[in-house]
Amino acid sequence: MKASFTTIGYENGVVTMLDQTRLPLEEVNREYRTVEGVADAIRDMIIRGAPAIGIAAGYGMAVAARQVDASTSFLAFMEEAKTLLGGTRPTAVNLFWALERMMKVVLEVQDASHDERVEAMEKEAHKILEEDEWVCYQIGAHGAELMTDGATVMTHCNAGALATGGLGTALSVFRVAKEKGKSLNVVSNETRPFLQGARLTTWELMRDGIPVTLVADNAAASLIRRGLIDAVIVGTDRTVANGDVANKIGTYGVALAAHEKGIPFYVAAPTSTIDLSISSGDEIEIEERSGDEVRTVFGVPTAPPNVPVMNPAFDVTPARYVTGIITEYGVAKAPYNESLSAIMAQGENG
Fold first, then answer.
1. Residues tagged active-site
2. Which three-class secondary structure string do you get for the chain?
3. Domains of the chain as residue ranges with CATH
4. What is the pLDDT of residues 20-35, one digit of tens each?
């Protein structure tokens, strides 16, 4: 089972990305042949979503290996490439997970020939993508079991195929549910200021024939209070040891409303986004983006050009508001310090 489009690919030293800043009006594929280009694409949100960022970082390191010439230290160049890519998006843990994984290969092949280095780096980057396809489907299968046939489920931001190398994380639940004969109705919050829910989630679900309704962010709590939403499922960019979850800004408010109404709030989290080195969400670095994203809507002014802006890209939802964390190895429940550790151990043991 695959999505009807390709988010990221790689062939013969060229990274291809579907430009998510142009959706839904245009489908434009961008090509990158240097690590600098890949870094710009991640920073500028040509590609976004934690798993997809990790995949892009893997391919960024692969093209960096191709850039190294005989007069340059391979190890030094690759460390610089890692630093460059690591400075693009600080909140998504997949970025750093993928870079550390690629650096292990760098150390293993640093004394090999140029062609052998490139081959090893490309092989590892491909593995990150291929594994993500499996992970996405497993998350979808576990999540689909939690959903009642005919339910109306809210999601926030885009945790779909556009954010991964497979079917998505949160949106994989809807795709697998459809495959298994369940009918789910999706409510997508628009997700200001970058409008990932409006531009991306609705685009990919409509394309795959899954019923979806778009709502303004400030309507979400009201719809929940009125009993029009049966469950919420979102993705995550980093989930920490106690179960606190960092996701797109606005997620916390949706979780509060769901908790008040007594409906389940699920988080779809591949283990690559789980960071047990951090004890609570208070320690997560929150990316602050340009104020122009709030002063304008894609270049069209909507506020005075000199008004001060706060534009955090993410917020943290405390674990007490999370009903369950859906991973590729099953659903973690509170107490999360125990269940997440057990799931991570299961992953390490294969």
1. 237
2. CCCCCCCEEEECCEEEEECCCCCCCCCCEEEECCHHHHHHHHHCCCCCCHHHHHHHHHHHHHHHHHHCCCCCCHHHHHHHHHHHHHCCCCCCHHHHHHHHHHHHHHHHHCCCCHHHHHHHHHHHHHHHHHHHHHHHHHHHHHHHHHCCCCCEEEEECCCEHHHCCCCECHHHHHHHHHHCCCCCEEEEECCCCCCHHHHHHHHHHHHCCCCEEEECHHHHHHHHHCCCCCEEEECCCEEECCCCEEEECCHHHHHHHHHHHCCCEEEECCHHHEECCCCCHHHCCCCECCCHHHHEECCEECCCCCCCCCCECEEEECHHHCCEEEECCEEECCCHHHHHHHHHHHHHCC
3. 8-134 (1.20.120.420), 140-348 (3.40.50.10470)
4. 999 999 999 999 999 9
